[in-house]
Amino acid sequence: MVSLSLPFLFAFAFDPVSRRLQCQALDPFSRRWLLLPPVPCGTAAGSFAVVGLPARGEIYVIGGVEEGGDKAVSSVAVYSAATNGWGQVAGMRTARGYMAAGEVGGRVVVASEDGEAEVFDPEAGRWSPAAPRGGAAVARYDAAAAGGKLYVTEGWAWPFERAPRGA
């Protein structure tokens, strides 16, 4: 069981044997890894977003692309540290894979490469449209939340043909 009163580092990886997404938590004090229950999603490696809401003791696994296919999904799984289990919350309004995401003001914000964005309010349990990101379309992007905003930048992709652009 993961305690809400202690900081943990969570790591997600695909198990090559089961071909399932796996989550582990590192207890920095004991330096032990704890295996969490299996993540209930069948999305392709790297196609989903993960966002933590530490104040709620929750981790969200958002969207992605179906394993073995190219169809984006809107599903959202949530891990609760209080119950050490996974559940489902309302799916996104638009199916997305390979999106940028982060926590802003206790809410989950996702942005896709076309500039569209939406916000999940965990208190209300629903998604709503967000202001479009604006700027040029970006691919293979990364995101960071700071100062009440989600910053999206184009990530690096091999081969390095050009420098990343910010949005």
UniProtKB/TrEMBL annotation:
Keyword check for Signal, yes or no: yes
InterPro entries assigned: Kelch-typ_b-propeller, Kelch_1
This chain belongs to the protein called F-box/kelch-repeat protein
Q: Which organism is it from?
A: Triticum aestivum (Wheat)
Query: Could you tell me the keywords of this UniProt record?
Result: Kelch repeat, Repeat, Signal
UniProt superkingdom: Eukaryota
Question: Where does the secretion signal sit in this chain?
Answer: 1-19
